[in-house]
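agent: user wants the structure for ABC transporter permease from Geoalkalibacter subterraneus. delegating to structure tool.
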Amino acid sequence: MMMKSLTLAWRNVLRNTRRSLMACGIVALGTVALLLTVGFVLATFLGLREVTIHSDVGHIQVAAPGGFERATEAGALLSAERVKALEHAVEGLPGVRFAMPRLMFEGLASTGDNTVAMIGRGVDPGREMRMSTMFAPIDAGLPLSGPKTPGKRPALLGRDLAHGLNVQPGEMVTILASMCGGGINAVDLDVCGTYRTGTPERDARNVMMPLGIAQELLGVDGASRFVVVLNDTDTTEAAAKALRVAFPDLEVQAWRILSPFYDQVVTLYTNIFVVMCTIIVFVVLLSVGNTMLMTVLERVREVGTMRAIGFPAARLSRGFALEGAIVGMVGGFAGLAVALIVSLAVTALGIEMPPPPGRTTPYPLIILVSGPAYGAVLLLMVLCGSVGAWVPAQHAVRKPIVEALGYD
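agent: tool returned. relaying tokens verbatim.
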């Protein structure tokens, strides 16, 4: 029975090929617009997530109580014993790629002639480089993990900070900071290179140095943060929960808490997409509805005849809805094919987008191909076609039989 209904609906769609093709074309355009928008939004979410995690924050950070607010105070630091205990604990957690300590502090960077406020970070260069190639992208000179020179104490400066101090790779800079136990300490560092993160605020203040030098400067042997990097971002909450259970006296925060900007972008883009999706669906509904209305008006007498010989109105309505679903499916599949080709082509071209607000570096235009998204959009187009055909069909199937037979 269902096969006969499909065959009949398909033949009815082909009765006016030109009109059906026009409706399918509009459905296809709507499908392409939706899928390209979805692909761009998903790629933006994925790219922002990975950049946030792998260029700075990591998946999870652990700190002493108050350590996320008072990173440089002695009571807010993780002791060397705590750091070793954390390293031992994360080794037993599934999905952990590696972990590393960081020491954060504030101070002054000076060349004698120029002095600028700075934010220092003592790091393990080797592990930080493992986190991502986006870590400290070098603008000039050598990375912090480059070849070691005896007697040299390397430092990596933000590009804008180096410009403000008027220093070049190979020159020296003095870092002054308050020691955790009280007093002021200073250390002379050799600028091995400059880097840029794309964020002007960070590029104008950041200084990176090996962890040991930062500990010597502050007079401590611990760290202010313990960063955990995972193999799979989806396991973040499970790993964070395990660390909270193992270290209930420490603060454990996931990357989304440490970087609220991500959720703000997700909310903004989601709202924009919902508005665009609503408009596109409305256009598709109007298009299919208009096409099917013309079809229904041409077949009022046919509907009256079928009702006169015993066909129920509900069955006729389902027939029209099935015709609309076929139009939505054909147009949807055509749109899927076009969207797939365009997405792959645009991504392969490597087109660069202008820097987003708050950043100075462009980013590649990528349109993500998502199987679930393609399936959802196809189902949406089929539903739009079905609803767009069912509504005008009521004009014919609810008309009295005598009136329908005499309709002209």
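agent: one observation worth passing along. The mean pLDDT is 84.
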